[in-house]
Design goal:
Elements (H helix, E strand, L loop, with lengths): L2 H11 L2 E3 L5 E3 L4 E4 L12 E4 L25 E7 L3 E2 L14 E8 L5 H4 L8 E6 L4 E2 L7 E4 L2 E9 L9 E5 L4 H4 L6 H16 L5
Antiparallel strand pairs: 1-2, 3-4, 5-7, 5-10, 6-9, 7-8, 8-12, 10-11, 11-12
Amino acid sequence: LEAEEQKYLMKALHSGRIDPQGKSHYVQVLNFTIHPRFRGPFSNDLAVLEIPDAYPVDDSSIVEVSNVNIESAYNRVVQVHGFGILSHGANETNRAAYFKVRTVDMYLLPPARCQPDLGDLFKLDQHMCLKPKSNETLCFGFTGAPIILDGKLIGIVEFGHVSCSLEAPVVGMRLGAFGDFLGQVPYSFLDHIRDVFRNLMNRLMGIGW
């Protein structure tokens, strides 16, 4: 294995969960697949783990992967769920991480809102641009956290700026860009019509910017 692939293997071997009492539980990983074009951080940085069907999910949720057209979701609010550090605008590396899942509302924005700050690190064909909805944003420990829109998974957190400032963008990995790798059903014309109608209704109701 290459060095970066070994890092993925170690992440897979340490997959687990933390119960409400803060006790760790490890999960058996039956198989894991690294994206065939993965060459390092920030590009095709995706892997799929297979766990037993019998894994208990009484305190977890299984979420469907969305096939929404990402452009129809711009300027809408998404939810990010994770155990990392939350920031109110400064580099708060001394703040404690939480053993309880935290939910943060973020705006999903057009790429132009992230590219000037990130340059070539932001991949138009893979990434999504997030900025905080309120005075709280994601900081260290949220990498890999699910990004949810309308109850479905549209991406996972990839990286952010070390400052953790409220103005700094957070970058997510667009799962819709990896439909073939994930075995998703392609986005259809009917899906497009549905999303256009939903976006129009959201604007009429004043949802988003």
